[in-house]
Write a structure and sequence with these properties.
Helices cover about 80% and strands about 0% of the residues. It has 23 helices and no strands. The longest helix is centred in the middle third of the chain and has 36 residues. The radius of gyration is 23 Å and the shape is globular.
């Protein structure tokens, strides 16, 4: 437990979380590859992806994904002032999180069939029944997610990042293992697969992975470092905690519901649309997770510390550095991925029941979603700056307004036009929401954090476009003309397009925007 319970500084924390993000994204792609190989796009896969809508909304309602953001500032001050009272406050939050998650999960299990009709209105009655079955298996995972989020916040406060970094790896590993092992176990027990396991093993893996990775492991490490949990139902800080958390609970922003909208409205657009949109979104979110998530999560406790000390100048500088680094890297990455979307999808998903037709159907969806990834990076960094200021209301209110505005557009405009329109509206709504948050930030706090950011983005775009054009042409030509098996042709197209992009982008970036390459060059200079 020594390695898992060790404490890290910001640099080491960012490195650990970055490595975890890379591995978890890779495992997530492997998971989706296995699913696409076995089930393709449509039917069983559609129901599996739709089964997450209600569990995810429960998580949003209880602010599970933001537990560390809401509890860390309050808990940090209480530990400095009165450790015994800090443990009472932590116990109170934990007890209410456990109770609320049990109640909502139980209600979801009892109402699974009507909820299935609500979240997937385009499915058939048989699909609704199967979807309700999947939901009942997945819903208990939310209890472990919510309680585990409290424990993870405690580990973040202690600057113990190893276990939170390991949790998604355990989670994804259990999903893959559940999907592959359940049919094998059934065969050994003499149960015919004709009875229809389908995605059942993957659903079981979700709950087991949540129990082990996001709850049991953090609990073990937190207990080893001193965890004082007791039944506490009242504490004077709960009012402040709820004031901070309620906007996150009640404000269902377009960012939170983006994936759910793809599932709900995708079910109305035809068979297989839910799966195709999901696979496209997985690819588009890879650069976002790699370049934004680790830095944003690791920097939050330190941003809170800077504001607590009143050092607004260093706060703006830290925020500006994070925004510039993320934007300078993701623009060329996103443009190359848009150019190479065909071979990327061919390598990652094509095979088994996911054929060439499904690959070609997913290509434009992937390109559309990749177009908004630079603003996803801005959001991941900027929203934590809002939260560090104790402002959870602004992102929640603006995001809820954007959500309400988009609902009729999804139903009356996007669904009749099909999958591409749903993807386009998703990208457009997220982009407008983030730009709105940027405008509000500049109005209230000044533009110090955004100084030079627009110019950097334009230079990164100018440096990337020639390479992206060459990569696009070479990728298409290679796939169409190379006399190789599909997977080999896709790998060759990836290599050729990537090389062409690098040969054109790097000299231009060195000339027009050296600041994009500077973080990488700085690391190379430090290496022996």
């Amino acid at each position: 437990m020594g390695l898992l319970s060790s404490r890290q500084h910001m640099g080491a924390a960012a490195l650990i979380l970055a490595a975890s993000t890379i591995l978890s994204r890779l495992m997530g792609l492997i998971r989706d590859k296995v699913i696409s190989w076995q089930f393709g796009a449509g039917g069983e896969a559609d129901m599996y992806f739709a089964a997450f809508v209600v569990p995810d909304i429960i998580n949003y309602l209880l602010a599970g994904g933001f537990m560390s953001i809401t509890i860390i500032p309050l808990l940090s001050r209480r530990f400095q002032e009165d450790e015994a009272d800090a443990w009472r406050f932590f116990s109170c939050v934990f007890c209410w999180a456990l109770t609320a998650s049990l109640l909502l999960t139980g209600a979801g299990i009892l109402a699974a069939e009507p909820l299935a009709r609500l979240v997937a209105p385009g499915f058939s009655p048989e699909q609704w029944q199967r979807l309700a079955f999947f939901m009942r298996i997945i819903l208990p995972a939310q209890v472990f997610f919510l309680c585990g989020a409290c424990l993870t916040a405690l580990l973040f406060l202690r600057r113990q990042f190893s276990v939170p970094a390991l949790a998604p790896l355990v989670y994804n590993g259990c999903i893959i293992a559940g999907g592959l092992l359940l049919p094998l176990l059934g065969t050994r027990l003499g149960i015919s697969q004709g009875n229809g396991y389908g995605m059942t093993g993957y659903c079981l893996g979700v709950t087991v992975g949540a129990a082990l990775g996001t709850f049991a492991l953090p609990l073990r490490v937190a207990a080893a470092g001193g965890l004082h949990l007791r039944p506490v139902w009242r504490h004077r800080l709960m009012g402040r905690f709820l004031i901070t958390a309620l906007p996150l609970m009640l404000g269902q922003t377009i960012i939170m519901l983006d994936e759910q909208f793809l599932r709900v409205f995708g079910s109305l657009a035809g068979d297989g649309v839910v799966s195709l949109l999901n696979y496209a979104r997985r690819i588009a979110q890879v650069p976002v997770g790699l370049m934004g998530q680790a830095a944003a999560v690791a920097s939050y406790p330190f941003l809170v510390s800077l504001l607590t000390k009143g050092d607004t100048e260093r706060f703006d500088q830290t925020l500006r550095t994070a925004l510039r680094a993320g934007l300078g890297l993701i623009i060329p990455c996103a443009l190359w991925m848009m150019a190479a979307a065909w071979p990327i999808l061919g390598v990652i998903f094509q095979g088994g029941r996911f054929g060439a037709a499904e690959t070609m159907a997913a290509v434009p969806l992937t390109r559309i979603m990749l177009a908004s990834t630079p603003l996803w990076i801005v959001y991941m960094v900027l929203v934590r700056a809002y939260y560090a200021h104790g402002d959870t209301l602004t992102p929640a209110v603006t995001g809820t307004i954007m959500t309400l505005a988009c609902l009729p557009l999804y139903y009356y405009w996007a669904v009749p036009l099909g999958a591409w329109a749903i993807a386009a509206l998703s990208s457009a709504s997220v982009s407008l929401y983030v730009l709105w948050l940027v405008g509000l930030w500049i109005r209230r706090h000044g533009d110090g954090a955004f100084a030079g950011l627009c110019g950097l983005g334009l230079r990164a775009l100018a440096c990337s476009l020639p390479g992206a054009g060459a990569a696009w042409w070479l990728a298409g030509y290679s796939l169409a003309h190379l006399p190789l098996p599909p997977i080999a042709a896709a790998c060759a197209a990836l290599a050729v397009s990537g090389l062409a992009f690098a040969l054109l982008f790097l000299p231009l970036a060195w000339w027009l925007a050296p600041s994009i390459l500077e973080p990488v060059l700085r690391r190379l200079r430090r290496s022996p």
